[in-house]
Design goal:
4 copies of one chain form a homotetramer. Chain A has 371 residues and is an alpha+beta fold. Chain A is built from 8 helices and 18 strands. In chain A, the strands form 6 sheets. A 5-stranded antiparallel sheet of chain A has the order 1-2-3-7-4, with helices on one face. In chain A, strands 9-8-10-16-11 form a 5-stranded antiparallel sheet. In chain A, β2 and β3 form a beta hairpin. In chain A, α1 crosses α3 and α3 packs across α8. Chains A and B meet through β1, α2, α6, β11 and α7 of A and β1, α2, α6, β11 and α7 of B. β11 of chain A pairs antiparallel with β11 of chain B, so a sheet runs across the interface.
């Protein structure tokens, strides 16, 4: 019950199923006065849309967004912003064979156990199409954050075992990533690595198999001291946000799992004063200390499993007969998820930060307009 | 504001500072009828207590818990359970030199930026002593989960670069871990690896340095279908719970970051039917599919950074002067955190699961007593 | 921020403005398996629709509801139910003269103070049209409550100073009210009083003035022990729900304000045992003791102020000039609110009860279907 | 479950039972820098303490408050403030005869139905002693509100059928009330009416009976535009807060139930401009329009039922035998509640306003200290 809402002071509720009439989101908590139009939202939705390349599902959807409330004369009014996208290219018949036979790696089996029934068409609510609402809301959150000087970028740093070269994180690096990320279909800013990744994705597609990867998200411009001790820490909320994206199996901040192998004298980022500002020379903390932002760039990486829908025959069972049987998955699917997850990761990061910026008073909750 | 509460249907609020008068927790949502006495709570608190071994801080605290409400004639009444521990061995003078000089790797700097002031004694609220409330509440949650057949164990699987041998996760393995975990001061169930880990911790202590590690948490007995789509997924809530523990820099479920390198045909756990029950032969999912439990053991690993308090001189700055300066940290500290984090990780997992078990109706919210 | 959501375990978020593109609601928390179709919802919406009689606004709206998610093959799936109504008959020009001149008795002035701007067309978000979402969600809540034997009815017991005759509340009386309530345009079950009320409403309309009244809501079938001490008491949540309806200025339970004048020996409802069931001979408590249901009918009354939109010239001010000036309100409005508030009061009561029934486990949170 | 918390951005959790070891509260959300000492809290607790006069229960309790966390060097730190009062004068034996026999007008019966058991000593959690936590937290909230120029006063305006004379509400009147309210044991600012009220209370006490009354709460200094549409309206939250106080059966704002009898032309408060400020000449709205504050004084009245504990024999039943039987209530009790409810009503109003002032950014959530 009631798990479809995210956020405390900037709060979204998503709704909709893969093959239902529409999917959407209601945002509650946007201060009045933010310029918003449908093109802003559409731009981000287009980046997560299916059918963009040979490594994304051929489902043909324009995913045209409509803003139904909360915007008046081009600006947010402070009231809920409701947005939706109607489903057009639905083909439920492709899913008849999975009605009683759960797909390995998918939510089919536990959904049935929880609800006693399920909308099996394309995974229903557990489909990645649910992220339409997240991305639409994230577009608003990003506009809001930009008024406070915060910028977010995500990119693929590993795919099918191919790792992009390490980059020292600073504002210049961020600009390079922003420039490069959409240049290839794998959304890796290291264009050489991107070539290899594409080869891996093509190979997997031809084998009817799939590959996983790692998506990194970087944020610059966050003021020091953002976050709420002791449970609603900034990294705790980021971890929840990212882990709530289907296919994500791990989240790390800064040095992450490597921190387990470092000594304290190496891990700790010493302080320095630069142009009257407190900085750290290294950023193993990934911009977060004790759950609060340090003012350094926030760095988060998500491990993304390979697409669970593969063409290779797999072992499943018939839930009515309670007997084992093979399953062959039809329908349309991507051979790899990370490239299309890039705008979703950006959206989730934006939602967490917008929430904390309002919650902590850095952005006024009522209005952006001067008295 | 208001970040000190965790949970939806089984909800805890912790309070207290390292060198304040007391620390404690209020639990709201325990059904009536659960047998509870102070010894149950004390047992878990003793496992996180300082001064247990040469690798934990010598601060001498009995950490004696008192239950002040919510229990009548040995059973929970359904009303809030308030518990506290008075601080005894406080020595704030050791912290005078860090009043204006933030310790690298600690929350000192962002706390000051957020609140404009801070209780600098022993880290104040950002101290690991805050976990007293978590562990006390976790003890109640674990009792509650046991009424539903759920058991949780955490253990150290990596410390200072030493990795315990991999174990195939089943009920027998869990029993072995439970038997071994408290046999050594590093709480690693692989007793050979434990010896090496201890050597690493001793070496770090002698160098005035510290080491990190990985804590794994395993849960058996969770019914299939637990969790709430799409944001309050079981793995999303676990990720938040674990990342909210100080020093945790990464969280992964099942195959975790390795999933990024697997192919779908390897990652997917095929279904099987065993004694009339649905199982999977492998458990790369770590017991969670689409954010809901699959009925297989839940497996979660946390990357823990090395203790930020080290004796080696570090670079910091004076916040009043805004000038760089060295810092030498006095006070008492552990050379490594994971062994004492074991009961905290168990507690956080218990809190997440108790919350979801009540939220989903698996455990009745009002009472365990029969009508 | 984020005040547009109501409920804990059965949670609704409403959105939309009087003259925007649409209004709607997302319900999160409906268990799977509840039969739902658009006709169920439409029936309740038709009762709150404008243009039903000469004492309701002539705005012509079919208010046709569309269900966009959460229902599959005629049953709820446990996922969010999104519903909307497109606005058709909008005439914003009628509101040009109130752009900078707040209407007395309306939210115009404080909205402007809060948000720095406002959608002035028809009151924007503060319009009574916002209750479309409440009534649509309430229709689902009522269906859910009926599966547990709970029935709700509201009726007008006072209008323009005319009071309906007192009725002893029992199941028979409730049936009479249900039979009579929609027989007259004032929705008073006492048909004689209804005639007088209509006369009052007609007179007010002709004078360009408006009248207030009292709406009573009765619930039968609520099990004893419903509600959550100490803040989320059943009566506290009912009071909030009702007071959140525009124009409501008072809420009372059972004897209500008369209780202030009674002695304890009169007010207290003594217990009795009837057919093996605990009852009380009187019901001054209005079915709620210490914030929990007693098992007796719940009785709640709301004081509704006269419609603030009147044709008579009133005193206001120009917010830009900060100077006083007269205001003449055009647009379309009802001479009295209570008759159209009847379905809204029923909806709010249903929302509170559905929330508490799920929260307390009386209705399972996941599914109504048998394992 | 989890109903013991109140507030969104300034949040309290109360705990404790009438005859348990202690009662208390945790406040989460106080900005850093607020001067707080135990005397501030004790002052308000003394006003609700038992044994103050012949019309309050003779239970002898000093109700000495201890602040255990969240305050450092005399100022709030932004972390949770935990406060408690140990119970001293407990005499549970007086309650043996009500163990299985519910007291009419009390929560005994529904508590047993909800939880399957109950702490029957003095009503356990449903005792009015639970308000200790509310009043202690309210004292902090009031200090916080005073930094923003907001003042709150409650007084008894009706008791046992005796009504205080009406007063036009302005700042002078408020000062008079503040001066007079504690001059008599009935806390009525109209000292003539107070005499009559005392006579009524004495008579009721001698008869072993009890009387009810009305408590009015007035707030000045609230900025216009406070509150959150559409559910978390200021009046909706006030209604919930007040109705959550035991014995309150009705809540009204401004003209309240009288509004039902007024015409719109009378009810509406016309706007005026006075010294460059927007005011209304009348205040039938009670300072709240469309759920947001108007800038005029907030006026709220609560109907309080007569004390349910009376010495007169009443009809009850034996819950084990399911048979009717008489009950004679022993123990200690007040003949009337409103005088001791005055500080509780002030506290609840303060909690609502502190919450909304922070939520809306009028008071910064992190700190009161200048950068």
């Amino acid at each position: 019950m009631t798990g479809n809402t995210f956020g405390h002071s900037f709060r979204i509720t998503t709704w909709g199923e893969s093959h239902g009439r529409a999917l959407g989101v209601v945002i509650d908590g946007t201060p009045a006065g933010l310029p918003i139009d449908e093109e802003d939202i559409q731009h981000d939705l287009n980046r997560r849309r299916p059918g963009q390349s040979r490594i994304s599902t051929p489902r043909s959807e324009a995913d045209h967004v409509e803003i139904l409330s909360g915007v008046f004369e081009g600006r947010s009014t402070g009231t809920p912003i409701s947005m939706l996208v109607y489903n057009k290219d639905t083909d439920p018949s492709a899913y008849d064979n999975i009605k009683d036979t759960p797909r390995p790696g998918h939510a089919d089996y536990p959904y049935k156990m929880k609800y006693g029934m399920r909308d099996h068409r394309g995974g229903g609510r557990s489909s990645a199409r649910e992220t339409i609402g997240r991305v639409a809301a994230g577009a608003v959150a990003r506009k809001l954050l930009r008024t406070a000087g915060i910028e977010i970028v995500s990119h693929v740093i590993e795919l099918g075992g191919v790792r992009a070269k390490d980059m020292n994180m600073d504002l210049d690096t961020m600009r390079t990533i922003q420039d490069n990320v959409d240049k290839t279909i794998v959304r890796c800013a290291d264009l050489n690595a991107a070539e290899e990744m594409i080869a891996q994705a093509d190979a997997a597609r031809q084998e009817g198999d799939s590959i996983g990867g790692i998506v990194e998200t970087i944020v610059v411009g966050v003021p020091a001291g953002l976050g709420e001790p002791v449970f609603d820490k900034l990294d705790a909320d980021i971890a929840k946000a990212m882990m709530s994206i289907g296919a994500v199996k791990g989240v790390e901040i800064g040095a992450g799992f490597k921190a387990a192998e470092l000594k304290g004298s190496h891990m700790n980022d010493g302080f320095a004063v630069e142009n009257g500002t407190v900085v750290t020379r290294t950023n193993n903390a990934g911009g977060i200390l004790g759950g609060l932002s340090s003012g350094m760039p926030i760095i988060c990486r998500c491990a993304v499993k390979p697409t669970p829908s593969i063409s290779i025959t797999q072992r499943s069972m018939d839930m009515k007969q309670m007997s084992e049987q093979d399953i062959n998955i039809q329908g349309r699917h991507d051979p790899t998820i990370p490239p299309r997850m890039v705008p979703v990761a950006e959206a989730m990061m934006a939602l967490v930060l917008a929430d904390h910026m309002i919650r902590s008073g850095h952005i006024g909750p009522n209005t952006l307009l001067k008295g």
